[in-house]
Amino acid sequence: MEHPSWVGAGETLVLLLGVYKVWVYTTWVATLLDTACLEAQWMLLIVMLFALSMNASIGAAFGAFGWLFAESYLLIQLGRGAWMLAVGFDRTTQSLFVRTLIWGCMSAPFWISGVFFDHEVRLMFRGVAAAIDLVGHMLAHHPGLPREGRPPTDLCHQLQPLTG
């Protein structure tokens, strides 16, 4: 960026939050799964491929390739969350994934809407989306939430086969 500005700082913050959310949830999911399992490996590989396209579009995320960033981000966040619900963890872990999906669905229209507008309006829509995701992250994993069943440290290696 030749001339730093507040708009550029806002764009950087929004993109940073998007990349951060993908990284945080992917590493969290990887700690819950037996990554030697073929289904887990495929899910992580697909997430990595979409993350690659998301990160490749960062330079033009508020320009010509804004749709690619939003599409990749949403496919990762919503697709991985839905896949994790299908895995079949205990009620506490399932409720965490339900909450993260709800917050992701709440931010999705703002990520998508930003694609159809000019630069500053796109920043406003994406800023709202990133704020929803950040608040959702904080509330979905609030330390004061009651725990049912086993603590998360006992959930490693519980992946049930997705096929018969």
> What is the number of helices?
5
Distance between the termini: 53 Å
State the low-pLDDT regions, or none. 147-157, 159-164
SSE-based structural type = mainly alpha
Averaged pLDDT, please? 83
Strand portion, in percent? under 5%
Helix content: 55-70%
- The gross shape turns out to be globular
Kindly state the number of beta strands: 0
Main traits of this protein?
mainly alpha, disordered C terminus, 164 residues, globular
Describe it.
- This protein has 164 residues and is mostly helical.
- Helices cover 69% and strands 0% of the residues.
- The radius of gyration is 17 Å and the shape is globular.
- It starts with 5 loop residues before the first helix and ends in a 24-residue tail after the last helix.
- The relative contact order is 0.15.
- The C terminus is likely disordered.
Quick recap:
The protein is mostly helical. 69% of the residues lie in helices and 0% in strands.
Topology (SSEs and partners):
Blueprint: H1 6-32, H2 38-56, H3 66-87, H4 91-113, H5 119-140
